[in-house]
Description:
Blueprint: H1 4-22, E1 29-32, H2 35-53, H3 71-95, E2 104-106, H4 123-139, H5 142-170, H6 172-180
Antiparallel strand pairs: 1-2
Helix pairs in contact: 1-3, 2-5, 3-4, 4-5, 5-6
Amino acid sequence: MASFSFWQMLPWYVMGVYWVVSAAQVKTAKAVEPVAARLYTRVLMIAAFALLFSKSAHWGGLNERFLVRDPRLEYAGLVLTYAGIAFACWARWRLAGNWSAEVSLKSDHELIRSGPYGYVRHPIYSGMLLAVLGTALTLGEWRALLAILLMSVGLTLKATREEALMIAAFGEAYRTHQDRTGFLLPRF
């Protein structure tokens, strides 16, 4: 029988494979964010993933538990991880050729407002943050909370840059979309 760790990592691997395979089907970029902005975001993301998934690193006090080990919390975290990855993959599938790893405007870029984009403007990031929260619950260590913080800062900065690009490209249509949807959480 597979270990709990295997089931915790499986959705992240599935997402990684899906991202790589689907990246071959994206449209050509006609405008891309500056390298410095891209590098800053990537450093935050890499640091967050290292904190979450590095088994060999010694993080000092960050390796201490902030949660009591409880199978119910760990299974709740597993459910959140799967739900977050599923939501992010649904959003990635919905974007199709308009997706890009960096903030960019594609040739014949379309404004997607259906599927998960009917609820939030950045559902890939929402899903990733939910998955990181789930992984943090299963890990239960302080380093996981730092990973959530780094991921939140990195994705919020990237989403803010995307918002500026979408307003420049789609104007009033995007502003209307902003009024109807939440940034990372649905608007209630």
